[in-house]
Design brief:
Shape: flat
Number of strands: 4
Radius of gyration: 24 Å
Strand content: 5-15%
Length: 101
């Protein structure tokens, strides 16, 4: 065995943590699961497409909080320039009509 320098406290902590994760993990069908987790056999049933689900959730947010600005282009907001065009912010209520256009 080679002479190697002693591990630092940080390296010892990381090595201990990783060894615990490896020991307490289970591999089933080439998928790594935590020791106490069981796979969820049934995914929630969605009765509509993802876009409609997102639009309905946005409508609920607007009903509960009111309409508000939604940051859609952070680069433009921070630097004042953009390579993608458009606005930095948009009202949440504008997203669905613009998307359906």
């Amino acid at each position: 065995m080679k002479n190697r320098p002693p591990r630092t406290k940080r390296a010892q902590c990381i090595a201990s943590f990783l060894s615990i994760i490896i020991i307490m993990s289970i591999i089933k069908n080439n998928v790594l699961y935590p020791f106490d987790a069981t796979p969820n056999p049934s995914a929630p049933k969605i009765k509509t497409n993802a876009a409609e689900l997102i639009f309905s959730l946005a409508d609920k947010i607007i009903e509960g909080r009111g309409d508000f600005d939604w940051l859609i282009n952070g680069g433009l907001e921070v630097t004042g320039e953009t390579k993608t065009g458009g606005k930095a912010r948009r009202k949440l209520s504008e997203i669905e009509p613009d998307t359906r256009r």
